[in-house]
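Exercise: predict the fold of this chain.
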Amino acid sequence: MSQFKWTYAPFTLKLRRAFTIARGTRREATNVLVRIERDDIVGYGEAAPNKRYDETPQKVMGFLDQLDQEILDDIPNPEVLSNRLAKQNPAIRSARCAVETAYLDWYGKKENRSVFRLMGGRTSLGSISSYTLGMAEPQTITDKLEEAESYPLLKVKLGGSRDRETIKLIRQHSKKPIFVDVNEGWKNLDVAKSQIDFLADKNVILLEQPMPADHNWEELCELKSYSPIPICADEGFVGDESITKIKKAYDCINIKIMKTGSLIKSLELIRQAKREQLKVLIGCMIESSIADSASAMLTLWSDFADIDGRLLIEEDPFEGVTLTDDYHLKLKEIPGIGIRRSDKWENFLD
């Protein structure tokens, strides 16, 4: 029997607004909360499964149901757990991430230290985070711009029929630098080149996944050479790919802990990317402050950040990472991953 007490359950996060990207629209997300306890110390983790990576809440629960819970016992260091989880089959990455995060939260509390300090972080301030505008009708875009007026950096979802109209509308209201995220929406090289020509003088500082991840490799490489805007791999980089190969088609990689399945592995991927002179963007899914706070730790070493999942939901079950007046991510200097449960969720999983 495991030395830890385990509980886990799905929970639904309702979005403040419908959130549309090139693949479809979401109004809520069902994630899975993992709670572990030992010696009166509790650790939390969150899985945010995404259909793009063939994951569902049901698959996350199935992974947790079949997982040998003694996997947490007798761990000399967190790296051992990361390796143990990586060997699980099927490899539901968001579920692995939730288990590892819960353990790291527990371990940090046990050691009475914040996890980002245990990881070698020298400051509690991460990168400036962008605020995401999903695809929408013009009036909704205008409303969203008003909501995001104080944010210095915007992320704009494209990949539909109104891409240029959206950018023109944004530029009527704001001159802020923007990330553009196409989510594989431009299906061929000619379309991608034409859209890049349009964006070239629009103060776009990063272009995420303009074409499908499985598109012809030579054309992906050609697009990188053509584009004056740095191109970032998102769907094109899960975490197992060769960094040396990836840099032939991309200038940057988007690391999400739900894709890699591990905070520890993600930190090593950042180090590899730096050695290969690739830029790093730390991203997120639609998630609560549990996963956002865990992801935000990685922004201590990243070039860019897009950690706003908790800002897109109506009710956050936890409190954690915040933003400074100039919108740098600010980690809490408390033991664990830096989260506290909100009052309305006080009894959830207890």
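Check your answer against the key: The domain at 5-112 is CATH 3.30.390.10 (Enolase-like; domain 1).
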